[in-house]
Write a structure and sequence with these properties.
By secondary structure, the chain is of the alpha+beta class. It has two domains: 16-71, 2,3-Dihydroxybiphenyl 1,2-Dioxygenase, domain 1 (Roll), CATH 3.10.180; 83-183, 2,3-Dihydroxybiphenyl 1,2-Dioxygenase, domain 1, CATH 3.10.180. It has six helices and nine strands. The strands form two sheets. Strands 5-8-7-6-9 form a five-stranded mixed beta sheet, with helices on one face. A four-stranded mixed beta sheet has the order 1-4-3-2, covered by helices on one side. Helix 2 packs across helix 5. It starts with 20 loop residues before the first strand and ends in a 14-residue tail after the last helix.
């Protein structure tokens, strides 16, 4: 039976996509944050003034908004809340090229890891928010879900660290994406202290 206004039921309709993210920052960090995200995402401003910036990098009118307010406190490093935001690339070549381009702009990662379902490079923005850049390691969500159900993932749900320059060397050597994306088995691993 379809939901109606008279009988909506209890199962909530899912949204069609995640529209955007809004980041609050202190006035002293506003320009750094805007400049960082413009560089990090190769984004442009749809609108910007001295306290608000709407940034876009794809078909959406804005994916990131940055706003400054006078009473914003610095974010406590160990506070609960949103852990990170992730941005997906088409393939390992794009992920590696974006890594090199960011590095050339002074933006370096703090963690590079093959989680199994995806290969990821993590960064901090000027406010200390965590950003994940990633590629999916499987062709379909169903294949990723199958990997989640394996004993290997249960033993190590965090992943295996890698060095981005090694990834680039493997790509340049002609090794297949499928081979590079296959997560090695290192046994049990817990959550790293730096997360």
């Amino acid at each position: 039976m379809s939901a109606t206004f008279a009988n909506p039921g209890t199962k909530v309709i899912s949204p069609i996509r995640l529209a955007h993210l809004v980041l609050k920052t202190q006035p002293s960090n506003y320009r750094k944050m805007v400049d960082f995200y413009k560089t990090f995402l190769s984004a442009t401003a749809s609108y910007e003034n001295e306290f608000l910036s709407f940034l876009r990098y794809d078909e959406e009118h804005h994916r990131i908004a940055i706003v400054t307010m006078p009473n914003i406190e610095p974010r406590a490093p160990k506070a609960s809340g949103l852990a990170h935001v992730a941005f997906t690339f088409n393939n390992l070549n794009e992920l590696a090229l974006a890594y090199l381009q960011r590095k050339a702009n002074g933006i370096t990662p703090y963690w590079c890891v093959n989680h199994g379902p995806n290969t990821s490079i993590y960064y901090h923005d000027p406010d200390g928010n965590d950003i994940e850049t990633q590629v999916d390691n499987f062709e379909t969500p169903e294949e990723a879900n199958e990997f989640f159900a394996t004993p290997s993932f249960a033993e190590n749900p965090i992943g295996v660290d890698f060095v981005p320059e090694d990834l680039i060397q493997r790509l340049e050597s002609g090794e297949s994406d499928e081979s590079i994306k296959k997560r090695p088995n290192i046994g049990p691993r817990g959550v790293p202290d730096f997360i």
